[in-house]
Amino acid sequence: MSRYATTDLHGCVHTFRCLVEEKLCLSRHDELYLLGDYVNKGPDSRGVLDYLMQLQASGYNVQCLRGNHDQALLDAARHRWRWDWLGPRGRQPTLRSFGVRRMSDIPAHYLDWLATLPYEIELPDFVLVHAGYDFALPPTEMRQDYTTMLNTKKYVYDPSRLAGKRLLHGHVPTLTAQVRAKAATRPGALGLDTGCVYRHNPELAHLTALNLDTWDLTQVPNCEPAYAIGKR
Prior knowledge:
Layout: E1 3-6, H1 13-23, E2 31-34, H2 45-57, E3 61-64, H3 68-79, H4 87-98, H5 108-115, E4 120-122, E5 126-129, H6 139-142, H7 146-151, E6 166-169, H8 176-183, E7 189-191, E8 206-211, E9 217-221
Parallel strand pairs: 1-2, 2-3, 5-6, 6-7
Antiparallel strand pairs: 1-8, 4-5, 8-9
């Protein structure tokens, strides 16, 4: 059995399938943890959700966290909030993948699935969250501060507030070489988002998975059919 974690798929279903089926060769005895942001920005948000649901329905041990983009899609669809922060260019690929014109028209079973996603997963040796924590808060409050857990881009890691466990997260795109170098030191906290969706940037544009037991990294370059996205 192997345990893996990866994050920030952002509609890149071909790259994710390559990681799962060709690079990790995931079996039903393995564990795969996803740290959020399955939708938006990239070309096929619906395809990513379909594939995740298919893996789970087929008996694979795939556990998924909630990310800020997953929360934003859920809020926009269910509460019809104005979703201006991505702009029209950011919304259209998501709407197109679902074949709808408005977020509120996304089929309910996708929204129901997103609504069940937890904000964190605790393992014997790691705590998994999408973005991070406000370590200045008492531990109980820190782990109920969902806005920070989904959105923070800076934190000061304090292992004493996670019972000595290491922290894994996504959310902040980080150069692939930098993640490789940091993982080699087996740090207390590690971000795994290597900006897979940013296909124009060769220093990003990879999907990264960490083996939680060996600390080996698997990095797969973006292999989606060409799609429009802002450069990063």
